[in-house]
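Worked Example 4.2. Read the sequence first, then its structure tokens.
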Amino acid sequence: MKSKSSSGGLVYSTEHGRMCPDCRQPVEACRCQQDTLPSGDGIVRVNRENKGRGGKTVTLVKGVLRDSAGLTALGKQLKNACGSGGTVKDGIIEIQGDHVATVIATLQKLGFQVKRAGG
């Protein structure tokens, strides 16, 4: 059985219904769960990295101004174009392997302004 303190205190109010435990607002007005668009200059930067990854190379895509659902969908398109695996973490799309040229070409076809970053 959960205690009141583990769920953040107020969970239900007869005046407003269910309450968000983080912001203590009614669930209908809660802004905690809503994704905000990242800010930036609108230029997508693509680079290759292998430091801290056990010698494995990954292609990183940074600066895409989309919410988490849009980033996930774009990540899926890029993984399909490269024929490789990958993930989306903290607003950065990671594609397994050295696919910088393929990713840049795919993003340009999709209408993004792209720059190669790093070496």
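Now turn to a second chain, presented in exactly the same format:
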Amino acid sequence: MPEVRLVGPNGEQVGIVSIHDALKLAQEADLDLVEVAATARPPVCKLMDYGKYKYESAMKAREARRNQAHTIIKEIKLRPKIDPHDYETKKGHVVRFLKAGDKVKVTIMFRGREQSRPELGFRLLQRLAEDVTELGFVESQPKQDGRNMIMVIGPHKKKAEAKAEKAAARSRRGDAPAREAGTAEPQE
């Protein structure tokens, strides 16, 4: 590898130079000679501050991770013979999870003779899906898995949108009590 195609620090093409001349140019400019395309003929090298490049790429990756929303799958477990009040409570949990932008995995657990009546669980899951249609959609249809029947409901809103709405609501609530507190007269 006696020659390399050299790219300058600002992206300009220097041309094909010998490796010794490229190293000399790098030393004079107080930069690093970095090979960017080893398989090209001749190999492509660039003059850059490699430490600065690594730092900037790490900062970009950290910023991308910060802006990334993690979708969490929450799980709710039900039984086929559930009391109406218990059903409403579980449905409230599903609604809360969907409003927060999380997916919900709904599991119906069958025991004993209940296993011979999977249509009870199927109807219960369909009812739950209909009750939360404005917040979520059925991502995977109900399917029997041994003693359990499983269905996944996904939210219509993304996690980031739900967080932004929640923050806006919190700031609106935070302003109102502060104004009321300022108008109260001190008591002695």
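Notes for the reader: Residues 14 and 176 are 63 Å apart (CA to CA). The longest strand covers residues 136-145.
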